[in-house]
Specification:
alpha+beta, Uridine Diphospho-n-acetylenolpyruvylglucosamine Reductase, domain 3, Uridine Diphospho-n-acetylenolpyruvylglucosamine Reductase, domain 1, binds flavin-adenine dinucleotide, EC 1.3.1.98
Length: 275
Amino acid sequence: MEVRELSAKELTTIGIGSSYPVYFPENLEELKSLLRNEDIFIIGGGSNTVLSEKLNRKFVSLRKFRNILLEEDRITVGAGVKLSELLALQIQKKFSLFEFLAGIPKATVGGLVAQNAGAFGHEIKDRLVEVKFLSRETLEVEVLRDFSEFGYRKSPFPELGAVVEATFKIFHSQKVKEEMKKFVSLRLEKQPPFYLRTAGSTFKNPPGDSAGRLLDLAGLKGFSVGGVKFSEFHANFIVNEGGSFSEFLELVEMGRKKVKEKFGVDLELEVRVIT
Ligand SMILES: Cc1cc2nc3c(=O)[nH]c(=O)nc-3n(C[C@H](O)[C@H](O)[C@H](O)COP(=O)(O)OP(=O)(O)OC[C@H]3O[C@@H](n4cnc5c(N)ncnc54)[C@H](O)[C@@H]3O)c2cc1C
């Protein structure tokens, strides 16, 4: 099985951390042998993940799970397929699926399912037909068709196991490219430019409000600790300009504390912080 030492900059969009051994299983048997180990962390595109420099864990990437089966009303895709590849296929074959996520860098099918990614009123779970996963408990391939445990940026994964592939409902659409352009423009109106190192939204939006708005009103837009800061474009995005994991944690705590003091609201992390 391929194993490579990869840096946090290669593994995650925010690029905080050191370098780590990453295993690239090619099939279910190899994945199974890794999943026996309690200490593994499954990494997708790393677009919602922040890593401690001192991690002593094995990383597993399902980058080699790249199957795609396009049918009349559904598509089945391997966990390692990238969002950008799916969007390109949508344009080529003219079908609607994830246009509302256009513009998100690096994300993979496994990470989209695990985070129940969503934007502009749409969520991954609304399009799911089934998820095939390797169970951590039984080490067997199981199929999930009941998505009642999915919620706002929440799913039973990766705790339940490794997503191996997912099947989504699709619809024919002549205007999918225009829709993507529309969503990318909407994104760029309020989010930091895509080339900056961020991990997407830091905190989940509290019910009926926006974490970015509260952080902004708490005076944190543009506020920095060392090499990390709350973006001037949107305070809920933390931008890494050469900072460390401890600086990231300090900034997160600062955000939580100020918002709690000013509004009595407890902010909950959306990014997956791995220690
Ligand atoms: C600029 C920017 C904008 C963003 N905008 C949005 C947005 O609008 N909406 C939104 O929802 N998110 C957004 N995100 C966050 C992120 O893109 C999503 O959460 C995405 O779903 C993460 O996918 P990933 O493959 O990068 O996952 P990772 O960051 O690699 O992993 C995220 C979680 O998924 C788990 N995971 C990954 N693969 C698997 C697998 N095969 N099986 C089981 N568990 C797995 C990991 O263990 C981890 O817990 C944004 C990120 C950035 C950088």
